[in-house]
Write a structure and sequence with these properties.
By secondary structure, the protein is of the alpha/beta class. It is 37% helix and 25% strand. The strands form two sheets. Strands 3-2-1-4-5-9-8 form a seven-stranded mixed beta sheet, with helices on both faces. The longest helix is centred in the first third of the chain and has 17 residues, at 27-43. The mean pLDDT is 91.
């Protein structure tokens, strides 16, 4: 299978140097990312000791939490991504490391909050990914994961290997049921999920109006839109260790 042949370590190291995760977004895409981040932030407990960002990308987690005096650990499989984030948000309470999320170089049972946004759809073994991060949490720790909701995976024929290749290296499509099954196998877990981000509002570029709404009001409008046309774009998962 594709996942078994996929050299994910080498792939994402090259990916980090070839593509700019720090380029500015515009229009509906920018506003959609903003709302996703607001949703994730809304699930983080008040005043956590530290937040670990797995697959740190553009460093938005560091940008938000460092300003609140919270220690942030930015991690990524590619050194270049971590280096950029540390340079961009150069604070004394900002740390970073390069590592594979399947084998994180972090002591188990010590992390307060872990955020991994738009990463799990790329990994070869989603259940192992969740398990490895969940093991890092301390008592009452929280793991927050986001991913596209019921994404229709698209493929192209690679000109180099002549094999079907998923666009954006998205290997999996998820619904809440995938994670209900994963959560059922974890010890001492309280699991919640949130589905949101109406695709019709995004497609119709309603952000021109909705971008002025506070997050709580936007969330209600989005809820009503999904009641009328059930086409959500995002899934956020919260695993809390009891």
């Amino acid at each position: 299978m594709l996942q078994e042949r996929f050299d994910y370590v080498n792939h994402y190291k090259i990916d980090a140097t070839e593509f700019d995760y720090f380029e500015e977004r515009f229009g509906a895409s920018k506003d959609d990312e903003r709302r996703l981040r607001e949703y994730i932030i809304s699930k983080v407990p008040q005043n956590p000791t530290s937040v670990m960002d797995v697959g740190c990308g553009s460093g938005w987690v560091a940008e938000h939490f460092l300003t609140k005096g919270i220690s942030v650990v930015s991690s990524d499989i590619a050194f270049s991504n971590v280096k950029k984030v540390l340079l961009l948000f150069n604070k004394k309470n900002h740390y970073g490391f390069t590592g594979d999320s399947f084998y994180p170089p972090v002591k188990k049972g010590k992390v307060d909050v872990i955020i991994s946004s738009e990463v799990i759809e790329h990994v070869v073994d989603p259940e192992k990914f969740v398990n490895s991060l969940y093991d890092l949490l301390d008592k009452d720790g929280m793991l927050i994961i986001s991913t596209p909701y019921k994404e229709i995976l698209k493929f192209i024929l690679c000109t180099h290997c002549n094999q079907k290749t998923p666009i954006h290296a998205h290997l999996h499509s998820f619904s809440e049921h995938n994670f209900i099954n994963i959560a059922s196998k974890l010890n001492n877990v309280k699991f919640d999920y949130y589905i949101f981000g109406n695709k019709a509002l995004i497609f119709l570029r309603m952000y021109v109006i909705l971008k002025y709404l506070p997050f709580a009001i936007w969330k209600f409008v989005d809820f009503l839109a999904n009641k009328i046309l059930n086409k959500p774009a995002h899934l956020v998962l919260v695993f809390r260790k009891n």
